[in-house]
Amino acid sequence: MMNQTALVEQDRRGSAPTFQQHWNIMTAEQKMSFYRLQAWGYRLLFVRSMPRGPLAVIAQDQELAAITADGELDTNPQIVLRGQ
To answer: How many domains does the structure of the chain reveal?
Structure first.
């Protein structure tokens, strides 16, 4: 479990990275997992660099999930979004 606070609207530098910038950070395993989950309505919110590799944060409606660097899905991540 990870406990992380993240800002969805903007990052700390003042401008939000694009989808492509987030996509480029993801591992091949994350991309494959996310591609399969898109059929279920998941969307990519952001990717954060973590000590164990990038963490992709995704959402389906208002439910958050995360994809670890090795492509494993965590449907109950301990993530708090700022501004909510």
So the answer is: 1
